[in-house]
Amino acid sequence: MIENLFKIPEHVAIIMDGNGRWAKMxxxxxxxxxxxxxxTVERTIKFAKKVGIKYLTLFAFSTENWxxxxxxxxxxxxxxxxxxxEKLPFLKENDIKLLFMGRKxxxxxxxxxxxxxxxxxTKNCSSLTVIxxxxxxxxxxxxxxxxxxLKSNAEKIDEESFRNYLYLPxxxxxxxLIRTSGEKRISNFLLWQLAYTxxxxxxxxxPDFDEExxxxxxxxxxxxxxxxxxx
Length: 231
What we know:
alpha/beta
């Protein structure tokens, strides 16, 4: 039960994995899995706001995902544009800010337009910030940061100043990372930011990830003693 939660992570990041397998298990095209996955995104956002999480980062599409069949990639991009336009009123009504991180090169113009519209129209929202990793790669983010540093002619960089060159330096590092579908790896996601993040893996496929499964992850998180290298 929610009332038993006494330690809420400020920032939860999720690798949303298993849409394709969910569809395949039902004899459906992988695109149907992505559509079901979008419904889970909405449930997850609502629940995160309900329990008081302040930041929710969702890994939606990696730079490696371009290697998937073109039909699937096109369907994902179209689904993304549809979702943004359809759910923007919901986000504004619920005081939810939407941000994006990743490289813009290669994204459809309609996707870029939807991203800008969403960020512009939710910029003053503050109860929950949802960050979408789109065309994102942790390695690429670090490389892009290094190139920014080289252009800045900075004489010296430490850990704190380095983070200022990341995509969203103002966002605190995740307290908890959840990955669905049984895979136990971070798959090039937030490589810098996950240094001290608690990791939680579940066998549940993303379309089946519900409030009960989210609660399991939060209960597991609050049972951990985060020492950050201290005794």
